[in-house]
Amino acid sequence: MITTLAMLTVFYGIVIGILYATQQGAKPTFNEYAVGGRSYGPWYVAMSYVNSWWPGATFIAFFGLAAGAGVFGLYGLAYSILGVTVMYLMATRAWRWGAKYNLRTQPDLLGMRYKSPAVKFIASVIGVVSLFPWVVLGMQALASLFEIASNGAWSLTACLVIGLAVIVIRQFWTVKMGMRGLIMTDMFQGVVAYVVSVLVCVIMLTGAGGSPISFADLSRVGESVLTLPGDGGTYGPWYIASLIFTGVVGSLCWPTSFQRIYTAASVRSVKAGTVRTILISGAFYTLLMLVGIAATQIPEVAKDPQNGWFTLLGQFGGTWMLGLAVVIVFAASMGHIDGAVQVCGLQIANDIINSGKRKFTDTQLTTIAKTSMIAFMALAAVVAYLTFHMSRLQLLAQISYQGIVQLGVPLFLGIFWRWGNKYGAISGMVSGFAVAGILTMIYPDDIRVLGSITGGIIGFAVNLAVFLIVSAITGQTAQERDRVAQLFQAAKRAVPQTGQTQPSAPALVPEADPAA
Length: 516
Prior knowledge:
Layout: H1 2-22, H2 30-35, H3 42-53, H4 61-69, H5 75-100, H6 106-114, H7 117-149, H8 156-177, H9 179-205, H10 239-253, H11 255-263, H12 267-294, H13 299-303, H14 308-352, H15 362-386, H16 394-404, H17 408-416, H18 422-442, H19 455-474, H20 478-490
Helix pairs in contact: 1-9, 1-14, 3-9, 3-11, 3-12, 3-14, 4-12, 5-10, 5-12, 6-7, 7-8, 7-14, 7-15, 7-16, 7-18, 8-9, 8-14, 8-15, 9-12, 9-14, 10-16, 14-15, 16-18, 16-19, 18-19
C-alpha cells in the first residue's frame, strides 16, 4: 500500500511540477484557454490525441472485455485506426476554418458552416451528453486504482471522493493555464500511460522475467475466446459491424478530437500528428488486447477480468509492478478526464450559455466554464458510484457512441459537401438523437430482432434521411450558396502559422437568426 501510494504521489507531483514550470505569467484569455494559442507541433498533437482516445477505462473495461470475451476486444482497434485515418482527411478544412474564423470548439464550426446559433447549441448539447459516460468510466477507473492502491482499506465512496479531489486540483491548473496546461501534461502522461505500457506488454508477452503469460499462450486459448459475437450465440450478424461503424463515425465527432485540431500550429502539424497517433494507438491497443487474451487462462484474471490488468502485473512483479500498473491507469485516466471535462466546460460556456442574446466577457466565460466543470465532475462521480459494479462497463462507452454519431451527418456533409442547410442540420440531429436515445434506453446493447443492430445506427439513418429531405425541401438561397462557396474557397488558402487568427469576415460569421 505505501509503495503504490508513494509512486502515485511522485507521478502526480511531476505533473504539477510540469504545470508550474510551463505556466505563463499573464492570465490566459478565453481563446488561450480554449485552443492554447494554436501553436503545437505534431508530437504534442499526437500524444494529446491518444490521451483523448484511450482513457484509463481502457485498462479496465476493454482489457476486461479481452480477458473475459477474447478477440471481441479487438473491435476497438478497427474503429480507432479507421477513425484517425479519416481525421487525417478532415484536417485541412477543419484547421484552416478554425484558424481563419477563430473557432474555439466543434459546435463553433457547425454554427459557422450552417450560419445558425441553433445548430451550434444542439451540437454542443449532444457532445456534452455523449461525453458524460466516458467521464463516468474515468471516475470508475480512478476509484478502482485507489481501491487497489489502498489494498482495499478505503471504501468505494472514499476512493471516488479522492479521485474527484485529484481531478479538481488538476482542473485548477487547467483553468489557470487553459488548454496549454492540458497539452503540456498530455505529453508526459501519454508517455507513461501508452509508451511504458507497450514496453510492459512486450516484456510480458516474450515471457521474460518470470511473466505469467507469453505469446505461446495465444495458441492455447479456448475456441470461445476466438469467437466474435454474431458467429453463433445470442448476437445477430450485424452486431460487430454496428459497433465498428458507430466507432469510426463517432470517433470523428468527439469534441475532444476537434479541440486537438485547433491547438495545432498548422495543417502539417495536424496531419503529422494523426500519422503518429495511428502508430501509437495501433501498437498500444493491439498489445494490450493480446495480453488480455493470453491472460484468459489465468484463473484469478478469469474470475475478475475487469481488474485483470492489476492482477496480472501484480503476479508478474509484485508490489512494484502493481504500483506501475496503477500509475499507468492513473496517467491515462487523469489525461482523459481532464480533457473531456475541460471541453465540456468550454462548450457549456461558449456554445450553450453564451449562445443567447447576452454575450459574456472572457472572465465571465471562464468562471462559467469552471463552475460547469465542477458540477459535471460531481454528477459523474455519483453515477460512477451507482454503476460501479456493472458487469459490462464497456456498455457505457457503447451507449455514448449511439449519441455522438448523430453529429456525423451535419459535420461530414458540412465539411465535404456544399449542399444542405441549417433546417436539415437541426431537424436531422434532433430526430436522430431522439430515436437513438429512445432505442438505447429500450435496447442498451443491441436490437436482436433486427440482427443485433444498435440503436445509434437506426438513429443515424433517420438523421441522414431527415437532413437530405428537409434540405431538399427548403433549399439554399443564392446568398447562402455564395457564403458557403466563400467558406470552401477560404479552406484552400493557407493561414499564416503564427498562432494568431485573422478577423472573421462579417458575411461568414454566424449571426442571430430567429428562423433558426
